[in-house]
Amino acid sequence: MEDVLAVYALPHDPLRPVVCMDESSKQLIGEVQAPIGPARGHGCLIDHEYVRNGVAEIFVEVEPLAGRRHVEITERRTRQDWARFVKGMLDERYPGAEKVRLVLDNLNTHFRKCFEDVLGVKVAHKLLRRVVFHYTPKHASWLNMAEIEIGILDRQCLNRRLPDRDTLASEVDAWQGRRNNERRRIEWMVSRQDADLKMARHYVS
Asked: What is the 3-state secondary structure (H, E, C) of the chain?
């Protein structure tokens, strides 16, 4: 916890950006009957019946101080998907960064060994020189600001039926494009001192 809070207290540095990442999922729901459009006196009418079309996985990265985020929709959430997502972050979205400080949770696919297994030792070592992992403690994923971004994504974009992965990707692309254009940042309010006051009774002297 102290390590993550110390990273969050750092000033914005484009050469050493602090980036948070997390994953989520979305149940894809199709309609049995086409919705009836809104009319005077009532909104859109949606039938209670639906059809399940599987689940899409969502990878989210956000740079809170810069107001940048990137979201990808995938079919699975394996170590291969995670390694490719982080490689894309380093090669495409932060090619000029000397070192990316990446905040993430302790999921079993989120470790350096996965890079070597997926990308090979040579490529993995070259990439890993440009990233520092900062792990949130177990049962403390609230420390990851990517969860805040996922909550906003859920409320503003995903809180309705979406029938397939292409529709989901199109809606998410429009959402993140708008938020990136507006440079929506996240202001973290919990300091190391706040954490000490609230959690002192749990510390071992």
From this structure: CHHHHHHHCCCCCCCCCEEEEEEEEEEEEEECCCCECCECCECCECCCCEEEEEEEEEEEEEECCCCEEEEEEECCCCHHHHHHHHHHHHHHHCCCCCCEEEEECCCCCCCHHHHHHHHCHHHHHHHHCCEEEEECCCCCHHHCHHHHHHHHHHHHCCCCCCCCHHHHHHHHHHHHHHHHHCCCCCCCCCCHHHHHHHHHHHCCC
CATH entry, 2-32+50-200, from 3.10.580.10, 3.90.1150.10, 3.30.420.10, 3.65.10.10: 3.30.420.10
Taking only the tens place, the pLDDT of each residue in 113-147 is 888 888 898 989 998 999 999 999 888 888 999 99
- What's the predicted TM-score (pTM) here? 0.86
